[in-house]
Amino acid sequence: MSVHVGEAGVRMGEAIWSKSSYSSASLFRETVDGELKPRAVFVDMDPSSLDVLRSSGYDCVSGREDASNNFARGYCSSGRMMMEVTWDRISRMMEACDRVQGLFMTHSTSGGTGAGLGALLSEKLDDEYPRVSKMGFQVIPSPQVSNTIVEPYNTTLCHHFMMDHIQTKVMVDNEALYDLCMLRHGIERPGYHDLNTLVAKVIRSISHQPFNDYYTNLIPYPRIHYVTCAFAETETPYGLTREVLELKNRMVKSYGKPGKWIAAYLVYKGHMTTTEINRALLRYRDTNKIPFVDWSPVGIKCSFEMDSCSTASLLVNDTVIKESFMRNNRRFEKMWNKGAFVHWYLQEGMETGEFVEAQENMAALELDYQEMES
Ligand SMILES: Nc1nc2c(ncn2[C@@H]2O[C@H](COP(=O)(O)OP(=O)(O)O)[C@@H](O)[C@H]2O)c(=O)[nH]1
Ligand SMILES: [Mg+2]
After folding, report:
1. How far is the CA of 178 from the centre of ligand 1 (A)?
2. What gap in Å lies between CA 137 and CA 260, rounded to an integer?
3. Quick check: 107 and 138 in contact, CB under 8 A?
4. How far apart are CA 52 and CA 366, in angstroms?
5. Which CATH number is correct for 2-228, 3.40.50.1440, 3.30.420.40, 3.90.950.20, 3.90.1110.10?
6. What are the extents of the domains in the chain?
7. Does position 33 have pLDDT exceeding 90, yes or no?
8. Would you say 289 and 228 are in contact if contact means Cβ atoms under 8 Å apart?
9. Which of 80, 63, 86 is nearest to 116 (CA)?
């Protein structure tokens, strides 16, 4: 089942669950009238953003005021006030499932609702359902475009408060998604809808497997759990393999040195055999070097499912993601050292100590990643 929080989270959820593109009945629940409804809860503090979804019968919870891009509003004040009713919906949906294979959350890290209320929900989910595998799909800030001035605060706080509660996080950034829509898919002026459709393809294609499988194959240490992804849609197993492994197909933009791979997982779907897939992968690796860290077993885990469309999705635990943490940490420090914009957070009930802890935790994460590469 899934939980979609804040604007980006809700819109991604909408793309994932759009009926036109989905046929896997196990992910839907059947109502008494025989209608299929998503096993999903949509949550936004913004009172009006869910009107359309609600009128289509989706399970929605909305608040009374937007989080105004303030993590503390989502985590401490208005968001916390929505917790009871939100939790009621989520737990009821969880209890209605026979066997929950996994739970995933979609949200952005740089706003207020998805980041703040999302973090609060992650704590509760971990508390109440510690044994259910959890994945997060997060829109992280883009390298060159900044949406709000306090983006670094929200992102740092979000990473910090979620760190121990969601085991595997798949990250995307909008700059990379825009480029992919324009350059690979020929969309002239992509909108959020196009970006979300792209991410939804990855999420849908990997959601048939128990999430624990991704966790055990991709995450060697609990803190090193930030994964990047790619998607390919073409006919032959070799074409799929080549395309999905190409760096420029990755949904996180990087300007620095390429990272090193710690572990990777490929999900193939279509009309093919596992022998064909293995052969394609061997052929690819004959001519292309995959930059694995030297202590990793150098295996790529593959899974395959028959399907009418041929697609491949890649999840890779790649140290390149540290670029995003480093960039965000530098931007955080600049404002924090001047005490800029902090009062907005204190006013909503955050404490300075929480900022300090979050900053230290993220600085430590940077070092953890450096160690992974050496
Ligand atoms: N990919 C994607 N990003 C979005 C969407 N809506 C907002 N964003 C991005 O999300 C960030 C702001 O977070 P938002 O989800 O609007 O804040 P919230 O409603 O307070 O959680 C910005 O970086 C936006 O560019 C969307 O539908 N899709
Ligand atoms: Mg919002």
Report:
1. 14
2. 21
3. yes
4. 41
5. 3.40.50.1440
6. 2-228
7. no
8. no
9. 80
Ligand 1 atom closest to Cα of residue 74: 20
Two tokens, residue 37: 């409804």
CA 112 to CA 150: how far, in whole Å? 10
Q: Is the pLDDT of residue 117 over 90?
A: yes
Distances (CA, A) of 260 to 13, 170, 224, 294: 31, 17, 13, 9
Query: How remote is the CA of residue 68 from the centroid of ligand 1, in Å?
Result: 12
SS3 78: helix
Query: Average pLDDT for residues 273-297, to the nearest whole number?
Result: 94
Q: What percent of the chain has pLDDT over 90?
A: 88
> Which residue bears the tokens 């955080």?
332
Contact 126, 134 (CB under 8 A): yes
Q: What is the CA radius of gyration of the chain?
A: 20
pTM: 0.96
Nearest to 285 by CA among 270, 254, 264, 305: 264
Average pLDDT score over residue span 57-80: 96
Ligand 1 neighbourhood includes 63 CB (under 6 angstroms): no
Picking from 71, 140, 78, the residue whose alpha carbon sits closest to that of residue 111 is: 71
- Asked whether residue 24 carries a pLDDT value surpassing 60, the answer given is no
Centre of ligand 1 to C-alpha 374, Å, is: 35
Would you state the pLDDT for residue 32?
73
